[in-house]
Design a protein that fits this description.
The chain has 10 helices and 8 strands. By secondary structure, it is an alpha+beta fold. Strands 1, 2, 3, 4, 5, 6, 7 and 8 form an 8-stranded mixed β-sheet that branches. The structure holds flavin-adenine dinucleotide. The site of flavin-adenine dinucleotide has 21 residues, from strand 1, strand 3, helix 9 and helix 10. Its cofactor is FAD.
């Protein structure tokens, strides 16, 4: 039997169908209601965990599905396409789960991975700092050794979901690392640790997952809070950042699918002249353009995930960046077209697109901005001089 490249394996197609069914049974109305009531997506998160969807990338011996990033990205894309994205999937199983799988000790894997895999705990991730921003080499959160313990001190900003997390993986530098080039040291900090506090940052888009400024005031940690080597180099961090970018792309692609599906449905049914509005090329062509660019974006995401799962960190880095860029663009374009297709209803709360229009912008900013990706591609893919 001939195989068709660019199609996914049967298992992943089945996974997509199962997630679409489960997330679809909650749908956008569930998320909108939770957002309105200032509640978390606890039922959906638990249900996804119970079905094994949150841990598909975690090794089987630690309670996961034994798959890879291509599987986890498929899960998030389907949930987002069903109108019920789970932002903390980008963080807990993708970043933290991968870093612990690749860099943790056996005891750390036993401790954290089964709970991350079944969703019974959430681990947030904190790298961004107020004064360092996109330039992570400038972070100043510092870990100092004190006997058998570490003492962590610093400040983080825009940390998603720390209020619903049991622990947070904090990126720091060790006190003796005085050069500008970051040698990241990664620590799991329980969210009830003495000296750890956070403050909500109000945002102009509304979602159940919130962002926080985090204050780390001489938090004392046992030696085994350190994940990986204190001197292990950047690869330990990028073990998590490539998955983060692929999941960012999955989130955006799913959101774009959601917007496109709703816009197409509206264009097929809304009639204000002789025929439905989808008859007019002014409506149909932008939708067709979104469809084409969405398929391009999904293909780059799938390639990035395949490289990541094959252990090609350099190739995955290049394609994860490009996938994140493409996802951010198509989510913004798709939401813009969807709103336009809906006319006034596009901004009516009932249709839920106005809020997503702002949320889609996130894909151009986080976890790495559009400009920093262009810097990276110009330098690494095109061999142009370093600009940053
Ligand atoms: C909703 C949300 C959730 C987030 N969740 C998390 C989280 O869970 N954990 C976490 O650690 N962080 C999180 N972040 C932070 C996010 O990763 C940062 O916002 C992002 O990396 C950009 O950093 P910054 O906001 O400091 O922008 P800045 O670095 O201040 O950049 C501002 C602008 O300048 C541009 N710019 C900067 N440097 C250059 C350059 N050299 N060349 C060209 N342009 C440049 C940027 O592209 C951007 O447009 C989140 C952010 C948001 C908005």
């Amino acid at each position: 039997m001939s195989t068709v490249p660019f199609t996914e394996p049967d298992e992943r197609v089945a996974l997509r169908e199962a997630v679409a069914k489960l997330a679809g049974s909650y749908g956008h109305s569930y998320v909108a209601e939770k957002t309105r009531n200032d509640e978390k997506l606890t039922e959906l998160w638990s249900d996804m965990g119970k079905h094994g969807f949150l841990g598909v990338n975690i090794p089987e011996e630690y309670g996961g599905g034994g798959g890879g990033m291509a599987d986890l990205a498929a899960v998030l894309e389907e949930a987002a396409a069903a109108g019920a994205p789970l932002l903390m999937m980008v963080v807990s199983p993708a970043i933290c789960g991968t870093i612990i799988t690749r860099c943790g000790t056996e005891a750390q894997k036993q401790d954290w991975l089964p709970k991350i895999a079944d969703g019974s705990m959430i681990m947030a991730f904190a790298i961004t700092e107020p004064d360092a921003g996109s330039n992570s080499h400038q972070i100043t959160t510092t870990a100092t050794k004190d006997g058998d313990e570490w003492v962590l001190k610093g400040q983080k900003v825009f940390i998603s979901g720390i209020d619903e997390a049991d622990a947070v993986l904090v990126v720091s530098r060790t006190a003796d690392a005085k050069t500008g080039k970051l040698k990241p040291a990664l620590f799991v900090v329980p969210t009830d640790a003495k000296g750890l506090e956070w403050q909500h940052i109000p945002m102009d888009f509304h979602a159940p997952e919130k962002q926080f400024q985090v204050f780390i005031d001489n938090v004392r940690l046992p030696a085994d809070a350190l994940i990986g080597d204190e001197d292990g180099g950047l690869w330990q961090l990028f073990a998590g950042l490539n998955p983060e970018r692929i999941m960012g792309a999955a989130f955006s692609n799913g959101m774009a699918r959601y917007a496109l599906d709703h816009a197409v449905e509206y264009a097929k049914t809304r009639k204000v002249w002789k025929d439905v509005i989808g008859t007019h090329q002014g409506i149909a062509h932008p939708l067709a353009k979104v469809k084409i660019e969405l398929e391009q974006s999904r293909l780059v995401m799938q390639k990035a995930a395949a490289l990541c799962d094959a252990g090609d960190d350099m190739g995955a880095g290049e394609y994860a960046n490009m996938a994140k860029y493409a996802g951010g663009e198509i989510a913004c374009n798709a939401l813009d077209v969807a709103v336009q297709t809906h006319g006034g209803n596009g901004l009516a709360t009932e249709y839920g697109l106005g809020n997503l229009l702002i949320a889609a912008r996130l894909g151009r900013i986080a976890p790495v901005s559009r400009e920093m990706i262009l810097n990276f591609v110009a330098m690494h893919s095109l061999g142009l001089p370093k600009s940053y």
